[in-house]
Amino acid sequence: MTTEARFLRDVESHVMEIIKEDGLHRHIRFRKPGTMCMHFDLITWPGYLCYTGDMGTFVFRRLEDMFQFFRADREYAQSRGKQLGINVGYWAEKLEAVDGNSHRSGATEFDSDKFKQIVNEYRTKWIRSAKEDGSLNAIERRELWEEVQDRVLGCVDDGAERAQIAAYDFSWHPGLPGARGRRWQFDDLFEHRFTKPTGRFMWCCYALAWGIQKYDEHTEAVNAPEPEHA
Prior knowledge:
The structure is a single chain. The protein is built from seven helices and eight strands. It is of the alpha+beta class and about 230 residues long. The strands form two sheets. Strands 1-2-3-4-5-6 form a six-stranded antiparallel sheet. A two-stranded antiparallel ribbon has the order 7-8. It is elongated and about 90 Å long. The N and C termini lie far apart (about 50 Å).
């Protein structure tokens, strides 16, 4: 199930409550009647929007009216037939603060799959190059392959910091330690980013898109002209 599908399932019985509405000062709550499970609030003041609820707390800053900021991606998505429009990477750049009270909090987390993919790309390139130019024999190529496996990829389960330190520290040369000649190491690894949005932040982004859309639909209905009677 996609994050969007899970979100829509989670909020299918939610209703909107406008707690405060005074220009750009808004406090809007979405929840299932009778429970606070999976609830969330959208709170705005000039230049800021705070999302807070079961999935954490995230504060964004960009435009004077932050609802207008998030509407832009909805319009783009709907023009392409999508139900909810989010722009996770761009929205994350506008974060001013995130909930830090849980190990699951924050907007990003270590992308171990991306890390393993990039390390394997380096390793495969090294082995092919060494075979083509004859710089390593078959036994040495196998040794290099296994060294990367043991010293770098073997650290992935220990977390982002340990895995990346292992990669930056990796240096291998065939033969005795300290031998001169070419060394295999992960040059330019810093150019890669090994993070991805957390599931909680993705859920929050869908909540922003959905909640503002519901608010706009309510506002449009309230402001609609009364039908003329014959």
